[in-house]
Amino acid sequence: MAKIDFKGRVAIVTGAGAGLGRCHALELAKRGAKVVINDLGGSRDGVGSSDAAANKVVDEIKALGGQAVPNYDNVATAQGGANIVKTAIDAFGKVDILINNAGILRDKSFLKMEEENWDSVMAVHLRGAYCVTRPAFENMREHGFGRIVMTTSGAGIFGNFGQSNYAAAKTGLIGLTNVIKLEGAKYNIKVNILAPVAASRLTEDVLPPAFFEKMKPDYVTPAVLYMCSEQCQDSGMIINAALGYFSRSAIVTGPGAFLSDGAKIPTPEDVMDNWGKITSLENAQYFYQLPDMFGALAPLLK
Ligand code: NAI
User: Fold this and answer.
1) Closest CA to 192 of 158, 154, 144, 225
2) Quick check: is 187 catalytic?
3) Best mutation site among 20, 38, 105 for ligand 1, i.e. most ligand atoms within 8 A of its Cβ?
4) How far apart are CA 90 and CA 295, in angstroms?
5) Do the strands 10-13 and 67-71 form a parallel or antiparallel pair, or are they unpaired?
6) Atom of ligand 1 nearest to the CA of 154
7) How many whole angstroms from 302 Cα to the centroid of ligand 1?
8) Amino acid 261: pLDDT
9) What is the pTM of this model?
């Protein structure tokens, strides 16, 4: 079995001062990566800042004989994103790996979801991924290698009561990935998505206590390390990971129903009468990109 190793690789992990990000960073460093430990050091809902979280993880990595530098910028600003990438280039010369992991929560049911809670969650998760990925992607393109991991959530993929802001932001990352996986392909930039479940301050009041005890981030990180490796040649995968269980989620498309020969305009009643067939996912297919979906319309274009 080929060993996964990150010697000579430079990684940025956002929100690496705690939880999943800390675990990803430690494991990357143990396998030879030089790591930028970014963390704003605020509270779970994104208030305040502190250097302590990032510094602590840098110290842990150094104590293990690894190489790491701290960065305290906010991922949600373009200046912060640029500075995080500059930190990697100044300290280690380039960026090979980016793990967009920083995150906050501001849960409320939809009618109580005020603009500020919507905007702050969108800013950290979706804008944050844009702000850090753009300068990192540029550097990866220049040297012809990149591995990017986005962190989505089952709350977005499947839905979860009280998390409309978070679910929208997390699912936005899937759309972002679907496009940059195509734009990065010829530069050997692969972009994949993690959907984790693990014990952290974000889940301490969400997971049942018995689950919380067991669900260490360490069970999730192996999927991230593989997706960051040279060996990983896939792009655009969504990988669920929890407690040593791994699976793929995907947006798939059912075979559908042809209610027209390409000339006749169907009626709403035609749609109603065929709703079961239209919504069936039996024999559903995954399309890697939009033009592949046009193939399904081929019979109408004859
Ligand atoms: P955590 O709260 O332990 O770690 C998140 C880190 O991000 C914190 O250290 C925080 O200071 C940092 N951070 C927050 N805003 C930041 C900003 N603007 N700039 C830089 N750093 C910032 O939480 P956890 O659970 O480790 O979460 C990591 C990621 O995984 C998040 O994106 C979260 O949404 C996602 N996730 C976690 C799940 C879980 O079960 N723990 C489930 C699904 C997704």
Assistant:
1) 225
2) no
3) 20
4) 47
5) unpaired
6) 43
7) 50
8) 84
9) 0.97
